[in-house]
Amino acid sequence: MIQEIKSNSICLFNKYGLSSVSMEKIADTIGVKSEKLSQYYETKELLLISIYDDMYEESLFFSIPKNGDITLNHFEDIMIQYGNLQSKYAFFYNEIVFVVRNYPTIAKLHNNASIQRFKEARSLVNYYIETGIFVRESKFLSYSKLIHSLWVIGTFWQSQKQVINCDEYTESKCHFVDMHWNILLPYLTPKGLEEYHQIRVLDVETKNNTLKKEKRKLSYSRVWRKSLN
Length: 229
Description:
By secondary structure, the protein is mainly alpha-helical. The protein has helices at about 1-15, 25-30, 35-40, 45-60, 70-90, 90-95, 95-100, 105-130, 145-165, 175-185, 190-229. It has 11 helices and no strands. The model has no long low-confidence stretch (mean pLDDT about 85).
């Protein structure tokens, strides 16, 4: 029952917005009375805390490996998975300012999680510097500010799409991973740039292979349908 409540709540929050969905609406969608729902989650904040805990636990599954070489591909994979997480919990990132203003417990949890991510990002940057992928820090170059800038892009990417939403402006519609790379490129050494280009080549090959598979499936489907006739 708990998982059913959370799954339906996430769908409703994503569709209508967090502030527009009441506990009564959630109860109606599940098909139970409000009193029954309150036996599991007495308030909306307790429900959101439980959902946030799930979201945080899922985020732990994509992290930097502790053993072996760490490539730029690891960074891209993490960003892609983070993007998938944002899509699943779109309501949270669309209304993150509303959430932290109105639900102090979640605000504290998210603050602590973000600080921890900053520390992990700093360790990753230090590794990339030591392995010759990133240029070294100087008085004109602050990696701490770079990390914060990347966090801002990642955290508010969902909401900025709603603020700037017009056909003639396309930059706001790209995947935020592309925007991350656009900021990171000037910090890459020649070795880092070579590794980045390898990632892009691999992406193109993967996309081409996917398109080929889709064409084969379509072709097979057409032949199969003709044989039935």
